[in-house]
Amino acid sequence: YQTFTGDLKWDSKDVSYRVVNYSPDMDASVIDDAFARAFKVWSDVTPLKFTRLFDGTADIMISFGVGDHGDPYPFDGKDGLLAHAYPPGKGIQGDAHFDDDEYWTLGTGPAIKTYYGNAEGALCHFPFLFEGKSYSSCTTEGRTDDLPWCATTKDYDKDKIFGFCPSELLFTFGGNSDGAPCSFPFVFLGVKYDKCTTEGRNDGYRWCATTGNFDTDKKYGFCPNRDTAVIGGNSAGDPCQFPFTFLGNQYSACTSEGRDDGRLWCATTSNYDTDKKWGFCPDKGYSLFLVAAHEFGHALGLDHSNIKDALMYPMYKYIKDFSLNRDDIDGIQYLYGSNTGPNPTPPEPQFTTSSSILPTKPTPSEKTTTVHVDPSQDVCQINEFDTITEIQKELHFFKDGHYWKNSKKGEREGPFLTSKKWPALPKVINTAFEDQQTQKIYFFAGKQFWVYTGTEVLGPRKIEKLGLPSSLDKVEGATQRGKGKVLLFNGENFWRLDLKAQTIDKGYPQFTDAVFGGVPPDSHDVFLYKGSFYFCRENFYWRMNAKRQVDRVGYVRYDLLKC
Amino acid sequence: WCVPLKSVYVAFPHDVIKNMTDVQLAAEYLKRYGYTDVLQKSGLPEDMSNSKALRKLQRQLGLDETGSLDKATVDAMKQPRCGVPDIRN
């Protein structure tokens, strides 16, 4: 491995990043997830922590651009140069730029996330069968509204599961229209447009007005690329036009004629010879995750390696089951050290309880010997709580058999032994919530749950009894929505629990990112506090308001614990 | 049916990777990724022949160090890659 001259590195182990803009090739949530996974590659082997910012200046500013994109190193169109990043430092240093003339995917062809329909945001399955015919791209067949759609299983005729594909008729991204679809035709500088245009921009990005008149309303958004859109050339984002004429011959499919590099292209008007409009046909694309992981290596201080299997080798190679090479690990640990040592463990509280926990009220004869909790155990040093939840209007923070709470006066109290108040519970609980109607408190740990009513306890019971899948290893978050309904979270999925029926509602699980976009996919705790959803990852929280907008990312220890 | 097609190569507008010879490609690649135009510590330009630069590239990319523009080297130069220079001045 190589580091940059002078071993450039970040001074702090807490490194922030911000996604400045998005590629039209993939859904924003898929891009966010690729970046988060790319950072995790490095945080898994170092003490580094990465926090996403949504505004302001972050250490690592991530952006997509084409050609001359504002730094001294222009991109070069499709293929060739894919991305670059700068070593740690201020200003542009640490930033990562991705060439948007590439086709960004997850490395194996179009990664088309669906919307609406009944597929709950699943990716398209290509090829899929529809009325006996095989489709390898989204289609408008069977519809009268021109909305492209796809099946998310291999056989629509059998499964009937589908969703709509990204198109400008469905939504826009960026801009100032909150994702509204294009309004065709629209007027821009007195001219009518009936499709997305690059007019008025010098970066090649396609846009449209979301009302009938941009000149008066100034409402616009960027057009997502359809899966059939060409890449690069001079018509990026437009679909191929078949048949088209090239050097007097007609072509009904992508061709490599006219090129000596064998790459397939097509015209985006019916006559290349007169219009000269063209682009490359979609291929497998480049894995944004793999390229980002490489670029973030630069942003953290690693230069190119000459080990072919290393992530920091300069050439792109798709790897299905990626893991860091020893060379990459040695390089990053040379700069930041490792995190493989034992984590500090708090002193074990010495108490005894009955080993068999029964769904009964504890009797006074039960011996529960407790010792004093070490008051020096500093809650402000805890990086990740087992669970945070609001009980009787007080925010409780649980960790390894202890809990702290913010009293109604706003003062922090604790630590208390969890076993003293809720003796049936194990030392580590994964989530808890209070049923606002009955004041019953539900605790979840692993595959079990307990229900406390005052001092009476019911449990442990298996979470399967609630209708959760037996494969589920734990419930990591819970938020009460309305009367008698609670959302239970585990990573990418969530379920809705009907408290009265004590069972999961039909139609669940749903994808967390389909409903709660912009929060970490690996949140280890979710709770509701003062009307907002909180998604926690380590010592950071993402706060989402009732309109499902992430309106703040902050520190648990400073903002919630008032350290 | 086996008569070879007479291929005509055209210059596509806005095609940044233009049809270029291997020698042109190599010259541009070596310059872009830092193998030529190298400065010595004194600040003077290092005498870097194409052969020397190619050897350096071949070593960096784990190829046979032939010092000539062989097929493996040209193929490597056509691979998609990161834009950060391999050799830093």
Describe the protein's topology.
The complex is a heterodimer of chains A (563) and B (89).
Chain A (H helix, E strand, L loop, with lengths): L1 E2 L10 E6 L8 H16 L5 E5 L6 E6 L15 E5 L10 E4 L4 E2 L22 E3 L2 E3 L13 E3 L4 H4 L2 E3 L21 E3 L2 E3 L13 E3 L4 H4 L2 E3 L21 E3 L2 E3 L13 E3 L4 H4 L2 E3 L5 E2 H13 L1 E2 L22 H11 L50 E5 L2 E6 L2 E5 L5 E6 H4 L9 E4 L6 E5 L2 E6 L2 E7 L14 E4 L4 E6 L2 E6 L4 E2 L5 E2 H4 L9 E5 L2 E6 L2 E5 L5 E6 H5 L3
Parallel strand pairs in A: 2-3, 2-4, 4-6, 7-20
Antiparallel strand pairs in A: 1-21, 5-6, 8-9, 10-11, 12-13, 14-15, 16-17, 18-19, 22-23, 23-24, 24-25, 26-27, 27-28, 28-29, 30-31, 31-32, 32-33, 32-34, 35-36, 36-37, 37-38
Helix pairs in contact in A: 1-5
Chain B lengths: L21 H11 L17 H11 L10 H7 L3 E2 L7
Q: What can you see in these coordinates?
A:
The complex is a heterodimer of chains A (563) and B (89). Chain A contains nine helices and 38 strands. Chain A is α+β, with helices and mostly antiparallel strands and 563 residues long. In chain A, helix 1 (28-43) packs across helix 5. The two termini of chain A are 40 Å apart. Residues 342-373 of chain A have low confidence and may be disordered. Chain B starts with 21 loop residues before the first helix and ends in a 7-residue tail after the last strand. Chain B is globular, with a radius of gyration of 16 Å. Chain B is built from three helices and one strand. Chain B is mostly helical. In chain B, 24% of the residues are buried. Helix content of chain B is 33%, strand content 2%. Chain B has helices at residues 22-32, 50-60, 71-77, and one strand at residues 81-82. Strand 5 of chain A pairs parallel with strand 1 of chain B.
